[in-house]
Each structure stands twice: as C-alpha cells, then as structure tokens.
Amino acid sequence: MAIIMGLLLALPAFSQLFDDEPVRGEAGAKIKAARVAYITQRLGLTPAESERFWALNNEYENEQDKIRIKYKGGEALESMSDKEVEQLLEGRLQMEQELLNLKRDYFQRFRNAISPRKILLFQKADREFRLELLRRVQERRDSPNRPFRRPGGN
C-alpha cells in the first residue's frame, strides 16, 4: 500500500487530472498501474482472477469510452439554440441508457471472472482510489513549495 501511494506522490502530471482529457503518457500509465495494484490487493484477487478480471475490465472501459465519444458534444452550451439543447439532453439520456445496458451485460461477464462480493468491493475500492488520488492532487496544488504556474499554461 505504501509503495502504491509513494508512486502516486511521484507523479508530476497530477494537474492534468482536472482537464477534460484523460491523463496520457507516462503519468497516465503510472496512475493506471497504481490503480490496478491497489484494487488487486484490496480485492485479494488470485493471479487467475486478476488476469480474467482486468482483461474484462479493460474491455468494459473501452466500450464505455466508445459510447461516450459517440455522444460527445463539441459546441458550447451558451451558443446553442433551445432545440439544440433539447437534442443534447435527449442524447445524454440515450447515452446513459446505453451505458446502463453495457453495465448490465458486463455484470454478467464479471460474475464469471470474480464473485459478486468482489464486484461490489471493486466499485468501493475504485472509488476509494479515485478519492485518494484527488486528495493528493489537491494537496499538491495547495503546496507552498509548488512552483507558480499560470492557469492554462506551463
């Protein structure tokens, strides 16, 4: 656990977590590795369970991304007409329904990889990991030793 948290402290690109785009590159890979290690340890996954679970989880996350990209709007809300806003709202509802259907489908697949108890523990551990990551990012941003950075720039 201490190793995982130490790894998180060493990441220089934490500020990217607040951007619209996901963290990519070396920092993103380190965060993903820390998440996998943390969750695998919290769930007590065996090597066989871990292999099946993470392959399935990666597939699930890729499918989620495809759905989100399909519905991603590019126009600023302020410049949209009322009709366009209505269409956006309807699209969001459709997206949420597709995500729910995907979740139901993958829940059945996850049950073949790990127990239902571990599925729920995964959700809890994932939430805990993200909250800890966010807390550390905020600490880093509030640190008086952090060099000044202009908003939106380096």
Offer a concise description of the structure.
The chain is mainly alpha-helical.
Write structural notes for this entry.
The chain is mostly helical and 154 residues long. It folds into 2 domains: 75 residues, no CATH class; 67 residues. Helix content is 72%, strand content 0%. It has 5 helices and no strands. The longest helix is centred in the middle third of the chain and has 32 residues. The radius of gyration is 19 Å and the shape is flat. The two termini are 32 Å apart.
Q: Any key phrases for this structure?
A:
154 residues, mainly alpha, 2 domains, 72% helix, 0% strand, flat, disordered N terminus
Layout: helices, strands, pairs:
Layout: H1 2-9, H2 25-43, H3 47-71, H4 82-113, H5 116-142
Helix pairs in contact: 1-2, 2-5, 3-4
Tell me the major beta sheet: none
Ranges where pLDDT stays below 50 over 5 or more residues in a row are: 1-21
- The succession of helices and strands, N to C, reads HHHHH
Number-wise, the strands total 0
Strand content: under 5%
User: How large is the count of helical segments?
Assistant: 5
Oligomeric form of this entry?
single chain
What is the global morphology? flat
Structural class: mainly alpha
Number of domains: 2
What Rg is obtained from the alpha carbons, in whole angstroms? Answer: 19 Å
Quote the distance from N terminus to C terminus: 32 Å
Average pLDDT score: 84
Residue share in helices?
A: over 70%
